[in-house]
Recover the amino acids of this structure.
């Protein structure tokens, strides 16, 4: 009998290691099919909550935030691209020139969970930004993605035009930062076990199997 596991995946849609972590987690869950029954919830985290709507040049941003040299940035980008390729995800670094504010994307993800379409929208957002180079803070982009995954476009437009779910998202963000989550992805299993970073599938597989066995 499959062991039920609740998994809270704390992440930002502008974080490349978050999609790497998600694809690794999903690979592990596929391998554990029949052993665990995962209930996956995506929780909000903003890497750059003060980012203006127009965003910032990504090379400039990384150099300022982390002190990385151009050579270090290039090497890190290649590492990310290769890790994504191994997991079946395409990073198009030539299309991703800026980093953007993602708060409205998190508001739509909150709504999408209520509608049972959260995972689909999360994947669509990652693909839109990292593969297609689109702005995940642009309302028209967000509405198009919502419609693509089966959500009501007019409802999405109304949510984005208001502050609907803003309070709920802020509350969830505070909940996790108050508990020591300051980098993502952070994967929390059964409210007790934390796995940090874009780990390989084997790490997730081993950890989930051990947690399920002890449950």
């Amino acid at each position: 009998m499959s062991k039920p596991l609740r998994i809270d995946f704390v992440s930002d849609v502008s974080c490349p290691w978050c999609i790497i972590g998600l694809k690794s987690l999903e690979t592990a869950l596929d391998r554990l099919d029949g052993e665990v029954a995962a209930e996956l919830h995506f929780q909000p985290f903003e890497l750059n909550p003060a980012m203006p709507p127009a965003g910032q040049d990504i090379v400039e941003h990384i150099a300022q935030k982390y002190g990385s040299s151009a050579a270090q940035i290039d090497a890190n980008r290649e590492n990310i691209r290769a890790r994504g390729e191994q997991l079946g995800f395409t990073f198009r670094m030539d299309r991703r020139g800026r980093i953007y504010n993602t708060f409205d994307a998190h508001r739509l993800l909150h709504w999408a969970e209520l509608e049972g379409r959260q995972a689909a929208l999360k994947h669509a957002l990652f693909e839109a930004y990292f593969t297609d180079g689109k702005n995940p803070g642009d309302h028209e982009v967000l509405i198009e993605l919502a419609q693509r995954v089966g959500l009501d476009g007019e409802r999405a437009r109304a949510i984005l035009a208001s502050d609907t779910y803003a309070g709920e998202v802020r509350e969830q963000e505070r909940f996790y930062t108050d508990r020591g989550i300051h980098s993502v992805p952070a994967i929390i299993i059964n409210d007790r076990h934390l796995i940090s970073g874009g780990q390989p599938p084997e790490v997730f597989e081993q950890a989930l199997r051990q947690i399920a066995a002890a449950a």
The two ends are 13 Å apart (CA to CA). Residues 61 and 140 are 25 Å apart (CA to CA).
